[in-house]
Protein: K Homology domain-containing protein
Amino acid sequence: MLMFGFFHSRSSDIYVFFSSGGKTAIVTNTTVEILVPEQVLGSVYGENGTNLNRLRQISGAKVSIHDPRPGTSETIVVISGTPDQTQAAQSLLQAFILSGQS
Structure:
């Protein structure tokens, strides 16, 4: 069974917005780096990038894929957005990887 790592790195930014009506909105932005083995990267992209596009559209998160660090064979997937968006994107990413394994 192929394994992939979650929460290699995580950062959060909190933004507080005040309106003239006295209401306060707090928006948290989270970034998660996930290490994905190169051999399952095709399942992440999907045919012509369809899985990656669906992941972005459904979750609402920003998703970027970076080259492996020197000396490793794991691709870095960076997901950022609200906590709900990043969680949804992580779940979809895991589902795409698991569906591509035989």
Summary: Residues 5-100 form a domain with the Ribosomal Protein S8; Chain: A, domain 1 fold (CATH 3.30.1370.10). The longest helix spans residues 83-100.
